[in-house]
Amino acid sequence: MLSVLSDAWECKVTAQRSLQKLWRLFLTLLAENAGLNPIVIVTEPRNRHAQGETNAGINVRKGQITNILGENVVQPLLVSTSAITLATKCVMMILKIDDIITVEILDWLWRMELLFALSNDASHED
Asked: Would you list the DSSP string of the chain?
């Protein structure tokens, strides 16, 4: 039972770390596309959030980190939620397709190996 709980906890932690990496990648790409220094732009909001400045975000037009809520740069929660949900579903579909393809390829290879083994056995009997 403890092993199952430990594995479940490890999966949860791994998922959270993966999401953190995803958001950092998103911020890095946003900074690069805006012509900003991605190292500064990615680390500065994290530092400000750690200091309690939860509304700190990237203002691409000014090229700096500002209070996004104070700048009236807001978007409905549904937009962000939908984007994340759709991206997650897309990745899940790709992974399922990869699994199907992998299983089909392995099955095909196994059949080919079996046929090859049978043909070799038949040729040795002659």
From this structure: -HHHHHHHHHHHHHHHHHHHHHHHHHHHHHHHHTT--HHHHHHHHHHHHHTT-TTEEEETTTTEEEETTTTT----HHHHHHHHHHHHHHHHHHHHHHHHHHHHHHHHHHHHHHHHHHHHHHHHH-
